[in-house]
Design goal:
The complex is a heterodimer.
Chain A: H1 3-17, H2 40-54, H3 69-79
Helix pairs in contact in A: 1-3
Chain B: E1 8-17, H1 23-31, E2 38-39, E3 52-53, H2 72-88, E4 99-104, H3 110-118, H4 132-142, E5 148-151, H5 157-170, E6 176-183, H6 187-195, E7 218-226, H7 227-232, E8 239-248, H8 261-274, E9 281-285, H9 292-306, E10 314-316, H10 319-322, H11 329-343, E11 345-346, H12 354-364, E12 368-369, E13 375-376, E14 381-388, E15 392-399, E16 415-423, H13 430-438, H14 454-460, H15 464-467, H16 472-487, E17 500-505, H17 511-524, H18 541-550, E18 556-559, H19 565-578, E19 584-591, H20 595-603, E20 626-634, H21 635-640, E21 647-656, H22 669-682, E22 691-693, H23 700-714, E23 723-724, H24 727-730, H25 735-749, E24 755-762, E25 765-772, E26 778-785, E27 789-796
Parallel strand pairs in B: 4-5, 4-6, 9-10, 9-14, 10-12, 17-18, 17-19, 22-23, 22-26
Antiparallel strand pairs in B: 1-7, 1-8, 2-3, 6-7, 8-15, 11-13, 14-15, 16-20, 16-21, 19-20, 21-27, 24-25, 26-27
Helix pairs in contact in B: 2-4, 3-17, 5-11, 8-9, 16-18, 19-25, 22-23
Classes of the chains: A mainly alpha, B alpha/beta.
Chain lengths: 81, 797
């Protein structure tokens, strides 16, 4: 799966499942910052989505990998089978 | 000392949980440190990382009247109720208005929701779904004819029910209250807590390994009685119930505040309201769920609160035996606390090794966390704490002595209505609603709903980071609540955040969200639940979101009885203010109309197939929704902050004649009782009532009950008495419509709704015409619930 496709899938997930407004969500927008405001409950959803859709486990992975769509996509890219 | 007429005593106990099917068995097993936690046999655990639960094993639950009409939550509760009544030497109450029922629950009829969804959508399951069914069916089983309500504050609901029971008795509204909580183990909470990674695969280990909770199920009932009533019948007396404290974290929808300061405030209120010293408390039955977040917050709060004055307080969590029984937890733990008090025995938290004990000691110092085996200790007072999703904290004190209970300290204060927030299918603000009324806007279809948009959020300064988390019910609630604060010009600050509370009334609360969650896990399996969606299933999530957004940290309770909950939120708020617990309250009514709600109404054959208006003798009603919030505060408080006053809340009343939950026929005379009770409470005569804001929705069965009661109560005066019916415009929005009816009355009395359609009931039929409202001085507002409960409120200039 191309990197761009992963990112667009992630963005669609943030919009449909975590209620994020797509207009303010760029690939480099900080997800846990003030504007988007994700928290620990949301990270559980991200982990579950990434596992189900890309077969990559992010359980217990360092925080910096969750910073933005870019960093999550990079982690998936690096760790997918 | 507490005056005799304010003393509340416990005269009966009942319990059913994984440790035992009655008090004797449960207590005996608890003394032997038996845990009820085992591998679950009732649910699918495929791909689930934790499979333990504390399930009830009882084959006599169906030995009640019409078991097919009751969810397991009701059955558990009725079993505990029967034991408690028997223990108290009480039996059938013959619809006595002096006997009330208040039951807490978190997930209510969730098993019936699952059954409906998985097994052919049978309409018979529908009346068993809402939490409201539980108290109603308990009342029906023993013919309690007083106030019947449920508390929907998730895991703190059981404790709050007992606190509310005392409030009712001290306010002179009941002699006996059957109070407690009930919940059953089911896929939705199991999958939900799995999705939050909040279950401990090895079984919960409170204050110890703290890897998560283990779910349990059961019911607990405490018979709370006025001292006078108990003495008169020479009843058994276990102990006194002293004061309680209920607060809101205003922090996070699932996680407690790490600093535990709002839990500390709840304990402080409980101690102060009890009129005791902190050092009088010998044992604290903690919430102690076994999650790190909860347990550490509690450890901190206990050290801060008791550290100096009561450093060797005994503490334990009994959840390691019973599992976390959610809405029943507080009630079951109340039974444990009372047994501890009366037998001078502290129950332990189980499963500590020597290393575990040493590690805990590091954290808690000399505080006495009782471990592994029970401890004999002379006890004077015990405290029981529970906290919940939505940020609710509740604390209550049981005692051998009467204490010096603080209650009704503000009972002579006038209560002003100072703010109104309306979200409805015809407008999302008071202004938009009034404009639609002026333009004669009516429903366009037989199923209508409110639409909250980004414009609402923008106007109220609600950021995306917050509103993205809201489900539909939460959207309705937060927008109406914030609009009410804005309308009242009430700015919540650090200084006043604890002086204002919230009571949310709702008929179905999170039932729709629970159904949607069930739909998800039917598809994905129990391992496929959503951590994002699960919090919305609890009925107090909407109120919790409002508290987080507004910063309100005072009293926070969600009541759920049916449509009249939207009016009872006003009545109970008056009680909270008169009790001196808060200076100001937000009373709100909220119910949603998402597709499943209309589907359920259609299945029950109560949804109209076209637009109908009140008194149209139709076979159904327009399904609606909304959220309406009203700010109430003492006149002094309103004056001090220069608030405008719409009108005053003069009195409220209730009536009940038991019929089956889901039914109304045959209960009509209870509406007469509610009206007369409200008039008496307000000190107003029937002749002084200038208008009525009622609850007719077009459905003949309901409208006929309303009409017939008005004929009896108002007599000849009725022909010239204007009746206003908000449901002609917003449909049957249940609790939202009940609060809207009160809001309309306030708008008329406050001069903001100069003209309105009025219905007039005469012998030859119903007529309708526009009337001027400027001459009105006092307006009666009424509402109903299935099962036979009615409420009324009197508002006046």
């Amino acid at each position: 799966m191309a990197n761009e496709e992963i990112k667009s899938k992630l963005k669609a997930f943030f919009m449909s499942d975590l209620g994020v407004d797509g207009d303010v969500l760029n690939y480099d927008t900080p997800l846990f910052g003030e504007e988007i405001g994700l928290d620990s409950v949301d990270s559980l959803e991200i982990i579950s989505f990434v596992d189900d859709n890309f077969g990559v486990s992010m359980t217990g992975v360092a925080k910096e990998n969750f910073q933005s769509i870019d960093t999550i996509a990079a982690f998936i890219e690096k760790n997918k089978a | 000392m507490t005056s005799n007429n304010r003393r509340c005593v416990v005269s009966g106990l009942g319990v059913i949980c994984a440790v035992g099917n009655n008090v004797e068995e449960t207590w005996k097993n608890a003394l032997n440190s038996v845990s009820g936690i085992h591998k679950t046999t009732s649910l699918d655990t495929k791909n689930c990382y934790a499979d333990l639960a504390a399930e009830v094993n009882c084959d006599t639950l169906d030995e009640i009247e019409c078991p097919d009409e009751k969810d397991r939550a009701s059955k558990l509760c009725i079993k505990a109720m029967k034991e408690a009544l028997n223990d108290a030497g009480l039996g059938d109450f013959a619809d006595s208005s002096r006997v009330s029922v208040i039951i807490g629950s978190c997930v209510g009829g969730v098993l019936s929701i699952e059954k409906y969804h998985r097994h052919g959508k049978n309409a018979n399951e529908i009346p068993k779904m809402p939490i409201a069914a539980i108290a109603s069916q308990v009342a029906e089983s023993c013919h309690a004819g007083g106030i019947v309500t449920n508390v929907g504050n998730a895991c703190a609901a059981g404790t709050i029910s007992i606190a509310l029971a005392c409030d009712l008795i001290r306010a002179g509204r009941a002699d006996v209250v059957i109070a407690g909580g009930s919940d059953s183990f089911a896929s939705v909470p199991y999958s939900g807590f799995l999705s939050l990674h909040a279950l401990d695969e090895n079984g919960c280990s409170p204050f110890n390994h703290c890897n998560g909770i283990t779910l349990g199920e059961g019911a607990g009932i405490v018979i709370v009685e006025s001292l006078e009533h108990a003495e008169k019948r020479n009843a058994k007396r276990y102990c006194e119930v002293l004061g309680a404290g209920v607060t809101s974290d205003a922090h996070h929808i699932t996680a407690p505040r790490e600093d535990g300061i709002c839990l500390l405030e709840a304990m402080d209120r409980a101690v102060k309201n009890s009129g005791i010293k902190k050092s009088d408390i010998g044992y604290l039955n903690a919430h102690g769920t076994g999650t790190g977040k909860n347990d550490n917050a509690e450890i901190n709060a206990f050290l801060k609160f008791f550290g100096e004055e009561n450093p060797t307080l005994s503490v334990s969590s009994t959840k390691v035996m019973t599992g976390h029984c959610l809405g029943a937890a507080g009630a079951i733990e109340a039974v444990f606390s009372i047994k501890a008090l009366t037998t001078n025995t502290v129950l332990p938290t189980l499963h500590y090794s020597a290393e575990d004990s040493a590690a805990l000691k590091e954290k808690v110092g000399q505080m006495d966390y009782v471990q592994n085996t029970p401890r004999s200790k002379e006890l004077e007072c015990v405290m029981s704490n529970n906290v919940a999703f939505g940020g609710t904290n509740a604390s209550i004190v049981f005692s051998k002595k009467p204490g010096d209970v603080r209650s009704l300290v503000a009972k002579d204060k006038k209560i002003a209505v100072t703010g109104i927030g309306i979200v409805s299918p015809i407008g999302n603000s008071k202004e938009a609603y009034l404009e639609s009324v002026k333009n004669g806007k009516l429903p366009e279809t037989a199923s209508i709903c409110s639409t909250v948009t980004n414009d609402d959020y923008k106007e109220l300064g609600i950021k995306m980071a917050f509103y993205r988390k809201l489900d539909n019910l939460g959207q309705l609630q937060t927008v109406s609540g914030m609009r009410a604060l804005k309308d009242a010009n009430f700015t919540v600050t650090e200084d006043n955040a604890k002086q204002i509370g919230i009571i949310v009334g709702t008929s179905e609360g999170g039932l729709g969200a629970t159904y949607d969650f069930q739909e998800l896990i039917t598809e994905e399996g129990n391992a496929g639940g959503s951590a994002f969606k699960f919090p919305h299933t609890v009925y107090n999530a909407a109120g919790g979101y409002l508290s987080i957004l507004s910063g309100i940290k005072g009293y926070g309770v969600t009541i759920t009885t049916g449509p009249l909950s939207g009016l009872d939120s006003i009545g109970y708020s008056m009680n909270v203010i008169h009790d001196g617990q808060e200076d100001a309250m937000m009373a709100t009514g909220t119910d949603e109309n998402i597709p499943i709600i209309t589907e359920l109404c259609q299945k029950l054959n109560v949804a109209a197939d076209k637009v109908v208006e009140p008194y149209s003798n139709s076979n159904g009603f327009v399904v609606g929704d909304g959220s309406v919030s009203v700010i109430l505060e003492t006149e002094d408080y309103a004056k001090a902050r220069g608030a405008k006053v719409y009108c005053y809340a003069l009195g409220y009343g209730n009536g009940r004649k038991n019929v089956k939950f889901g039914h109304i026929s045959g209960s009509g005379e209870a509406l007469d009782m509610a009206i007369n009770d409200a008039l008496q409470n307000a000190g107003v005569s029937i002749d002084e009532i200038d208008a009525v804001c009622g609850f007719a929705n077009g459905f003949k069965k309901l409208d006929d009950i309303e009409k017939a009661a008005y004929v009896r109560v108002f007599g000849d005066k009725l022909a010239s008495l204007p009746l206003f019916q908000v449901k002609e415009r917003v449909g049957e929005g249940r609790a939202a419509s009940a609060t809207l009816a009160a809001a309309e009355a306030a708008l008329m009395l406050g001069g903001e709704l100069a003209e309105e359609n009025a219905y007039f009931i005469a012998k030859d039929g119903v007529s309708k015409k526009k009337v001027a409202t400027s001459g009105f001085k006092k307006i009666l507002v009424t509402s109903f619930a299935t099962g036979g409960s009615y409420s009324a409120v009197v508002l006046g200039k």
